[in-house]
Amino acid sequence: MSYDPSRSTKSLTFSPQDNNGDTDQNTNENRKHSVLDEKALRVDDTLFIRDQRVLKISQSYQSILDSIGEDPLRQGLLKTPNRAAEALVFFTKGYEQSIRDVVSDAIFDEDCENMVVVKEIDMYSLCEHHMVPFFGKVSVGYLPNKRVLGLSKIARIVEVFSRRLQVQERLTRQIAEAIAEAIKPRGVAVIVECLHMCMIMRGAQKVNSRTTTSSMLGVFREDPKSREEFLALARITPF
Ligand SMILES: Nc1nc2c(ncn2[C@@H]2O[C@H](COP(=O)(O)OP(=O)(O)OP(=O)(O)O)[C@@H](O)[C@H]2O)c(=O)[nH]1
Ligand SMILES: [Zn+2]
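Structure tokens predicted for GTP cyclohydrolase 1 (239 residues):
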């Protein structure tokens, strides 16, 4: 059974009021934009705007230090609010990027029908519930339909969506949908395996639990053989 890109495009759209590109409410008929049309959500187009952003976050961290009973003026902490602000801006730099910018011109006409698999792409994100890191590996496969995507762009797409506040399920789906929309392949498969620090350092405190999520589109959803081939090729090395 072939993969109908027009069907997939519909499932790739999302509500403009949802600033993380989430499609959790798939019944929402008001969705207007595709993943490729999504604009960067944070535009630091001048150094001044960026500095203002860092300053604002830094002031918040100063208040946090005070609230946890620390002395923000002690020598070791003097630069901490600024460092922490810079780190948070980096951890969320996916808001500054759009998929269209990232993919740019790296879509190539190619008469390749065989499966392409890029496995074990490192990813680091922040869970949106606790703003605590979760991290792991992403493996991506697709079956081309006369077009292939520059390999590094797959890693860059992972970076755009993971450097935001996320839940693992949405991250997995967004990666699959972005690739589907960019090159309209016959199918896309994504597997993400992560450790969630919010389950390890606090809360349930389950040190060894890992979470695996998958998103199968097109042929991978419909054809068990393609799915099995992908799973065999993408077998993730335990970490
Ligand atoms: N589905 C999903 N849940 C996540 C993810 N990251 C964190 N969570 C969960 O988000 C949930 C938030 O639940 P709450 O009960 O509101 O928060 P909490 O009291 O801090 O929960 P505990 O972590 O159980 O202490 C927790 O169950 C987390 O494990 C994710 O990527 N996907
Ligand atoms: Zn969490």
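Confidence is low (pLDDT under 50) at residues 1-30.
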